[in-house]
Amino acid sequence: MNFMKKLNITQYSIFSYIFFFALIFIPMSLVWYATSKQSVMKQVELSTKNVLLQSKASFESDLTQLDLLAQQLPYDSAISLSKLADPYETIASRSALLKYRLNNAFIEQIYLFYPDDQTKLYSPNGSTEIKDLLALRKMTISKDELITFLNQTAPVFSSIDQQQAEGQTFFYSVPTTDSFGSHQATMLFIIKKAAMDNLFAPLSEIEHQYFYLIDANQQILSFSRQASTLESSLANKFENKSTLPAKIKQGNETFTVQSIVNNSLQLRYLAIVNTKVALAKISQVYKLSIYLILAVLIIGLVVSLFLARQSLRPYKKIESLLLKHDKDSPNNQSLSFEDLHSKVSNFLSENNHLKDEIIQQKPYIKESLLHQLLTGQLNDLSKTQSLFQASFNESSKTAYFSVVISLEEISDTPTSISDHVIKQILQQLNQIKQTDFEWIGTKCIGENALTLLVATNHTRPQIEILDELVEALVELCGVALPIGVGTTTSNLLAVKHSFIEALAALSYRYKNATQMIYYYTDMPSGQTGGAYAFSFPEDKQLKLMQSLTKGNETVALETLEELIQYGITHCETFQLFRMYSYFLMNTYANFSALLPEDQLLQELEVLVDVNNYQTLELHLQTLTQMICSQVEEQVQTEESDLKVALFSYIEAHYNSDFLTLESLSETFALSSTTINKIMKEETDTTFAKYLANIRMEKIKQALIETDEPIKEIIQSNGYYDVSNFTRKFRQVVGVTPGQFRTIHR
User: Which ranges does the record mark as transmembrane (predicted)?
Assistant: First the structure.
C-alpha cells in the first residue's frame, strides 16, 4: 500500500470511497443475490411439490371412488354375465350398470369384462366386441394384449397406445372378486383427457412449469398447455430405464424435477420447473439493483469529489504556504500525503517554540475579543465563535447578558486591584462548568471591577445563574460583592448595550445600598402618574453617562435617542420640556473637564434657548461626538504614555531576575493579558520572547565588545543557569557563546 502515500488528498478521497464502496456493496450484493436465488428456488420447489401433492391426492381420490363403485358390483344381483347376455333381462342389467356411470362425472363410459366371455365387453349401451372397441378407440394394441390388461388382479391406470393425439382417453381397470376371493369380472372405466386436464389445471397453468403422468407402460402423459421438447428426453430416459435426475439440462436451460411415485397404481407424477424462467424476475430485480448500486456509486463519487475539494482547501492553504517558504520546490507542484506530512513535521520541529507562544496568546485573544465586543469595536459575528461552546453558538435559543462585579470591597486601594487576585477569581469562576449556561470574564478597563459575559439557553432562570455566581464569589472572597446586571439580548453583537447597562446598574448602588444584585431593568425609568406627576428616567441617564465615560459613541447616541423619545412621549408641555432639557444638559455638564477651555459649557449655553426636541437632539449629538472623541484621544494618549513607560522600564530592568510578567503587572496595575496585548501590537511577540531577545542582543554585544568572562556576561544579563542558557544560545545562534566571540573578533 505504499502507493497510497504518494496520493494527494483528492486522489486519496476518491480511491478510499471506491475501495470501501466495493468492499461493502459488492460482497453484499453477491450474498443477497445468492440467498435470494436459493430462497426463490426453494420456494418454487416447495410450491410445485405442494400443488403436485394436492393434484395427486385429488386424482387418486377420484380413482378410489371408482374402486368403491367396482367393489359394489358383486353384490348387485341385477348385473351378471348371464343377465347381460340374456335378451330378456339385458335391459334391466344395462339400466343397473348405467347408474354406476351416472354416479361419477369423472367417467365417460363403463365396460364390464368377464373372464368367461373373452370376446365381448358389456356397457350400459349394450355388448361390444373387443375387436370393435379396439377399432373405435384407435388402439394400436392387439386383442390379446387388451385381454391380458383386463385380466390383471390389481387396479391399473393406463392410456394404452392410441393413434389420435387429441381426444386421448384413459383406461382404469378395477378387478372385482366374489365372496370366495375369485376373480369374477373387471370393470373398465373410460376417462376422457378433458376431465384429466381439469383435474390437473393448477399445475398446467404455471408458466414455467410442465406436468407429466407416467403410467405402468412407461407412457408419458402430458398435461401442460405449453409445448415442450422435454418429452423426448424423458422418453429416452424411461426407454433406457435410467434413473431420473433431480435436474435436467437441455441446451442453455436447466429444469428442476419434482417426482412422486404411487407403486400400487404403478404411476409416477412429474412436475418439471424451468429454472431460468422461474428466476427471471429475481434476475431482473438483481439487474435493477446493480444499476441502482452503480448510480449510487456515481453519485457518491461526485459527492466524494465535491467533499474532497472542500476538505482540500485547508490542505491547499498549508501546501501553498509550505511551497512558498520552500524555495527548492516548484510552485505548481502538488504534494502527496507523505510529502505534506514530512514538511509539516519538519516545520513544527523547527518551530516548536510556537506552540508555547500560541498557548500563551490564547487567553489574550479571548479576552481581547471580549473587550472589543463589549466596547462595540467588533462587528463581525464570525469572529466571536471562539468565545463560547458550539452548542451556544449554533442554538437559536441562546441569550446573552453582561454582569459587572465591583472589586472595591476586596481591593487595597479604591481604584486598583492586583492582577493576581483577578486571575484567582477568573480561575474560580471558570471551574464552574454547566450545560445550560457559560460565562467568560475579563477585567473592566478603567474600572475597579470584573466583567462577565454570560450565555444561557433559557433552561435555567437568570436569578439561579446569578445566585451560583454570588456563592462562588463569597466562597473565594469571603464577602458578597456588588453586582450589576444588564438586559438580556439574543444578538451577541448587541451585548455592548448590556455592558453599559450593567455599569449603570452598578452605579445605582450608591443610591440604594440595601441589596447586592442590581438589575438595570429594576432602575427607575421615569413615568407620569397624573397631569403633573413626573420623574426623570434615571436608568437611561446612568446608561448615557457610562457610555460617555467609556467613549462608546454608538451606545451613547442610541441611548440619547431613547431619552429624546421618552421626552417626546412624557414631556409634552413647554414647562416639562424645559425641565427635561435642563435634566439632559445637567447630565452632559458632568463631562465639562474633558473638553478644553469650558467648551462644553459654551455649547450648553446655546441649548438654553432651544424650544423643540429635534434641535435639542442635534446639539446633544454634537456634544456626544465631541466627548467620545476626546475620551478616545485621552485613552490613546494614556496608552501611548503607558507603552513608553512600559518599554522604558523593561529596558532599564531587563537584567534583573525579578523582572517577570507578574511583577510587571503589579508595577503598572495592568493585567498580564493587557501587557501581552501591548507587546503583541508593538513588537509582534510576547513579553517573554521580547525580554529574551533583549537579553540575547545585550549578551552578543558584550561578547564582541568586552573581555569579561562569558559566565559573568550571562549572569549579569539575568540568567543564572549558565549551562542551560548556553544550550539555548546554541539552538538560536548555531554556535556556543565562546565560538560566537571567536568568530566575531
Answer: 12-34, 288-308
